[in-house]
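Tokens for Thiamine pyrophosphate-binding protein. Go.
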Amino acid sequence: MTERRSAPAGRTGGKLLADALVAQGVTHAFCVPGESYLDLLDGLYSVRNRLQLVTCRFEAGAVHMAEAHGKLTGKPGVAIVTRGPGACHAAIGVHVAFQDSTPLVLLVGQIPVDETDRETFQEVDYRQMFGPLAKWVTQIDDEKRIPELMAHAFDVATSGRPGPVVVAISEEMQKRLATVPDIGPAEVLPAHPAPDALPRLMDMLGKAKKPLAILGGSRWTEQGRADIRDWLLANDLPVAVAFRRMGLFDGTSPNYVGDLGVGADAGLVAKAKESDLIIAIGTRIGEPVSQGYTLFDMAGATPIVHVYPDQAEIGRVYRPALGVVSEVNAFAAAAKAAGAVKKPAWSAWTKDLRAARVAQAAPQDYEGPLNLATALQELEKVLPKDTIFTTDAGNFATWPNRFMHFSEKQDFLGPTNGAMGYSVPAAIGAKITHPDRAVIAFVGDGGFMMTGQEIATAFHHSVNPVILVFNNQMYGTIRMYQERTYPHRVSGTALTNPDFAKFIDAFGGHGEIVERTEELVPAVQRALASGKPAIVEVRTNPEQVTNRATIADLRAQAATAAAGVANPVPAQASRVPAPRRTGPRTR
């Protein structure tokens, strides 16, 4: 049983809130301070030896850090922001946590209750604002209910499908005194598969000829990842990962066949459509994974076994042949115990899918002095085996997805909702969570300029992530779509950037510029060895707008389509050298 301790008499609401966080096992909270929660800040001062308060520079950055902490630990990340503009800035991070199924608790300072509905200074109704973005939104106006409502917030964030909870805390409530006991976490056993779930799954698997497993979701433990790996390998199953879930399965394994998401290999997508049994574990089979809901027949022509912790998500779009309501780690343990099919009929199928993955990961002969595919593959060889990677949204992100092989002990954090500005604060949050592990962030020039100022937080809290900024001087993804639809009509997608190496140098960090293939590995090694927050600016060829096509290719394809010709030009058919930019390579 969870022990409940009597609280000292007369604690303020602010102190009760701080103690409630400690009672729930919170070790880090990420904030931008505001006058709407001064009493909570004072309460956090009292628990500073048990809970580290991380001061950030922008509310979206604070929530991204908390979300990364939640992804890595499986426990709710905690962010604290002020009312009105602070809450609005934080909303994007809440949306990330919602679509990524990451446990998160966001505390928002609120106006005095007696000023409600007067449109007082910075007044917002957070139930309406965050209602579509969060699992639950509440407001605490009675200080005596703080332990109860805070405990429930953490329960909701981690139950079923994990996600964000928003708790508004009214200003005067934090000042009032109350005598109530703290409430710790509830001990709730995870949902396990029904008794006949695994026998039925194994029977379906035994009849399959072309099965495919898809791993996704959140709150996987190290043991759960090991258990599901053992079961998948014992059955020689081909394994794909859902969008930006590369950390769930060893990319160097002969059973890894690639990622299903934005920029997925067309060969893997075609094979998935051929499959006669899909085993979807932890993934919602959402829009990126399903390739815009085109991958499978919604009525169930392709048999799908859908394993998910929330029954409401099973069959939401695709009707499964078998739905299994189970927490992912509990399912992994049960699957491992179920063993293997005696004579798998798909060994050649698995080898075929793996061969396609290996072929599409082979670097092409890209134009210019920097072959990013080759450089990234050389980089993966020298990085620590427990490196944490974070990524932003953008076309640049398809390069590491396609060409790198993330190994078993590594973690990969990315926003499945496609939020730009995620990677830099997520890398800082990851480094604060695991200071002894190397953290490498992938971010485009557009995304960096959205939240790159959070590098100040890394200096303030003495952590040293390495940020790789891929600079092509444009919003590359939008330019790609623009050239496909309106070729030659460039509008709103060009960018003017600073010298990113000088940017980090102004903080006293380590900065480098990379323009050639052979420069990336030594630059990152020097950055890691510096012991400082670091930026490695990777100047890429703006003509190479994707890893499969140039701008000239896209324009030619658009012209071909406009002319009604059936066969578009192949990717890489036209090559234009990258413009040379002057500037020192190292700062």
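The two ends are 57 Å apart (CA to CA).
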